[in-house]
């Protein structure tokens, strides 16, 4: 039995959501666009909310651009009435580019990555990978450092598996070293002068010796005074591609938080179109469903007696203990401020 047209439309809308959201920053940005389109007003944690939160109002707040709380206030809300909440998380298991990622081996440029969350890491081999995240750039007009989202829609990296006839333990389970055998290949080494690639041997030596090379494991004067720039810590061509994508100068890039993602698009599959084949279903399904559910309930606001709220948190995959995680002050603070605004001049029943 084929899916009905309404179900297919909802599934396609979700697929578009996932394809646009390879990182928590993109998830929040995509959710914000949906909320703004539905008439929600953005609030800031840094500003006074006096006179802002009202009955039949629709609002949202973000923290770190990777967590978001949205809520509506029923038209018949009274102090002491309940709050209906749905929780989800914006992050998913992924590979993050290391702070110092430039590396070479056997004639290839490589990019150093680290695992994030509880991923099934062997599934990342032989994928068409690219990069996405946020980049911190100096605005030459104001001198301020601003954050820009980036998503390069082109396969740049690959973690290849070894041909089976070259594999010594071909009949055993697939195991690999995440530090030495889990480095994506980015390109071939040419004779370009000035490329800042670090050999695997040099990288291992630095890792074993730590950041201090002086006597008694103390920083030398040069080490103390020098903080490597982005162009020194990462592949120049990769940084150049990031700068080109953002239409900024390389020298204006201060730092970034980038992860890898599979460039193959999510899609509908199955004999009867009953499946969604997609990455990041954990937990973007809940992010999307809670957001659209909140938006679709807006028409009932005049008769609602409570507060409807969704909370989309970052860092669930690593324990939720950050300033924007579920175990932070984010949700308690927002709930307290909502209740304070709605109870001003009124007494609890």
TrEMBL record:
Keywords: Aminopeptidase, Hydrolase, Metal-binding, Metalloprotease, Protease, Zinc. Its EC number is 3.4.11.21. Its cofactor is Zn(2+). It holds the Pfam family Peptidase_M18. One of its GO terms (molecular function) is zinc ion binding. Belongs to the peptidase M18 family. This is aspartyl aminopeptidase. It comes from Candida boidinii. The lineage of its organism: Eukaryota, Fungi, Dikarya, Ascomycota, Saccharomycotina.
């Amino acid at each position: 039995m084929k899916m009905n047209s309404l179900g297919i439309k909802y599934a396609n809308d979700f697929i578009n959501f996932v394809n646009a959201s390879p990182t928590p920053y993109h998830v929040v940005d995509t959710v914000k666009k949906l909320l703004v389109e539905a008439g929600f007003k953005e609030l800031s944690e840094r500003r006074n909310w006096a006179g802002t939160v009202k009955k039949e109002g629709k609002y949202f707040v973000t923290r770190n651009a990777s967590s978001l709380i949205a809520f509506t206030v029923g038209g018949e809300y009274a102090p002491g009435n309940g709050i209906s909440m749905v929780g989800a998380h914006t992050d998913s298991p992924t590979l993050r580019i290391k702070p110092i990622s430039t590396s070479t081996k056997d004639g290839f440029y490589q990019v150093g990555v680290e695992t994030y969350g509880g991923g099934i890491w062997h599934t990342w081999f032989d994928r068409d990978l690219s990069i996405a995240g946020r980049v911190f750039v100096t605005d030459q007009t104001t001198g301020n450092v601003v954050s820009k989202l980036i998503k390069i829609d082109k396969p740049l990296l690959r973690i290849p598996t070894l041909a089976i006839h070259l594999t010594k333990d071909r009949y055993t389970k697939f195991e690999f070293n995440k530090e030495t055998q889990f480095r994506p290949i980015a390109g071939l080494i040419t004779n370009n002068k000035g490329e800042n690639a670090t050999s695997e041997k040099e990288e291992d030596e630095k890792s074993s010796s730590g950041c201090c090379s002086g006597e008694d494991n103390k920083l030398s004067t040069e080490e103390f005074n020098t903080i490597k720039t982005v162009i020194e810590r990462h592949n120049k061509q990769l940084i150049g591609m990031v700068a080109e994508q953002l239409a900024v100068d390389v020298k204006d890039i201060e730092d970034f938080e980038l992860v890898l993602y599979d460039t193959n698009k999510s899609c509908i599959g199955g004999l009867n179109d009953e499946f969604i084949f997609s990455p990041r279903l954990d937990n973007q399904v809940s992010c999307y469903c809670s957001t659209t559910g909140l938006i679709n309930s807006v028409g009932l606001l005049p008769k609602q007696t409570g507060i409807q709220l969704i909370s989309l948190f970052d860092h669930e995959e690593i324990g939720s203990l950050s300033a924007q995680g579920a175990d932070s002050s984010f949700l308690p603070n927002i709930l307290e401020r909502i209740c304070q605004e709605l109870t001003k001049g009124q007494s609890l029943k």
